[in-house]
């Protein structure tokens, strides 16, 4: 096994891109381009994996095992990082029916091309994935492994996400971030300055992620909204697709429809509603996830609906 070292491509300092001084209320909006870290191990995926891979290496584990759905950014990132750093990877995928359709699914095709061993289980079994019994079955099927939870959130992932913030982000009044499990937000809340408010935009119904944030941080300078989740996880409509395409036309920046597109839609809506304090500097974290667009476009094409421009 090679000595662990992140290649240069994973060690860049992402730039903050200024978008605009918005005409009303003196707002400015900037984006921290975490998506530019790496095409597949981008944004919060890189941050979440960094210390976990170091730990796996320290424990002399040569296999990473994790869980995910059909279009999971986390599955693509683990497969790619595993290939780069010489780990075997196993992906436990939700939905037995997908085993017949790997070639039709860009995320699974990519994961397989990186050498990830894909293992498909029913949705019912998937719900039990965190039980001791199921973990014992995995051990007997795959031997020893380093387990990364679904979505990659654990203590080491939160530690990595704290590093999203730096000296350069201290001047912002609001830090906006998309929320799935809440792990990325927990790191940002921990790393934020006392004068900064962190706003999480839930990609799914509910704001239950607060519980997870509280598990990792005692700070209170944050809120989570699900007002821009478009009805639930991976649910979208034509107004969101139109927004993502217009944003791309105007800024040259691609947003994904599951996380960053919904966050940015929410930020713009809240700017229009004058939610933020007058003259505020707002920073949006682009957490990556662009690999999922191809899968979403396949779905939109089947429905004869407008697709996301790449
Ligand atoms: C691109 C992207 N942004 C944001 C998130 C949300 O991250 P978290 O689950 O840590 O809340 C995810 C999910 O992992 C993601 O893939």
TrEMBL record:
Keywords carried by this UniProt record: Pyridoxal phosphate
Pfam families: PALP
Record flagged with keyword Signal: no
Cofactor: pyridoxal 5'-phosphate
Tryptophan synthase beta chain-like PALP domain residues: 34-288
Nucleotide-binding among keywords: no
Database matches in PANTHER family: 1-AMINOCYCLOPROPANE-1-CARBOXYLATE DEAMINASE-RELATED
Family: Belongs to the ACC deaminase/D-cysteine desulfhydrase family.
Name of this protein: 1-aminocyclopropane-1-carboxylate deaminase/D-cysteine desulfhydrase
Lineage summary: Bacteria, Pseudomonadati, Bacteroidota, Flavobacteriia, Flavobacteriales
